[in-house]
Here is the input.
Amino acid sequence: MKAENQKRIIISGGGTGGHIFPAIAIANAIVRLEPSADILFVGALGRMEMEKVPAAGYRIIGLNIQGFQRRSIIKNLLLPFKILKSILKAKAILRNFRPHVAIGVGGYASGPLLIAARQEQIPYLVQEQNSYAGRTNKYLGERAEKVCVAFDDMDLFFPSEKILFTGNPIRKEVVEIAGKKEAGLAYHGLSVNKKTLLITGGSLGAQTLNESVMMALDKIMEAEVQVIWQCGSYYFEAYNRQLNDEYRKYIILTPFLQKMDMAYAAADIIISRAGAGTIAELCAVAKPMILVPSPNVAEDHQTRNAEALVNKNAALLVKDHEAKERLIEQAIVLLENSIQCDELSRNSKKLAILNADELIAHEVLAIAETHRVN
Here is the structure.
């Protein structure tokens, strides 16, 4: 039996760390504000959330859903059937769990769950991370109770009366870096007398960033720059075999960053993709950043995310197809320009929103209270 006074909340989405970590941050904030809340996650089978969410202490149910495969027509033939089947399963989950409100954070499972919630007349909230909304979220935003956004001018995509500017939730433990620079360098075995470059391709790694580093190893040595290079587990073995002892004096290669705060703290400059969640963290740590948007995302939204920061002089942008030739060289030049580094840091810090998780959680609980149906 479900307690009569207990708020039941369902959170859907995932696929990458950029969706999963904000979703968990929202759940944690809800529990801080209302410890009795009953939270259920819905994700995509075989994706990261099926491991990360239980590790964070929450239940999750998986849908057999995937995204559009740009490189495989055959795999897309079954997609409409998977979507329909996922919507039907999502309806069954909703009828069993009887949530007072649903939250969609983006990712494969978010669409089917919120479509089912819309059809079942369950109130829902959309958390739009990016500066350019995709088709599914634009459709869902029309009937959402609220759409929580992190960029300006989102009334281009959603009804203005539904928009709530909250920023994107971040992992607070990884952005608390004040006073940790020396500890971060020591953790990675790096010198306090050299400039440090952090290159991170996210939880899955980024081939372009990895190839950009490999092509510039000699430039890195000549500039005497030390590099923390998070390449992704898929790429680690191949690149690890190619680094000789001389390169290893300057390069710390790792498949995944176990202590992100130590990497952020050690860095003088950060090179990254331009996922919305990553950008939110980078603004919070306020280090000079060079963004290389992934071209393999819907509506090229990472480029739009990066441009939103570039327009406020809070980041530099290098296009994916130019990165192998320009990226590391530009980073080395930036490391020597303390005035520009300071300016980028100041401007990115102005964009940081540290309590996005609680702003969203307050709104979720308000919707749940208004639409309480036991």
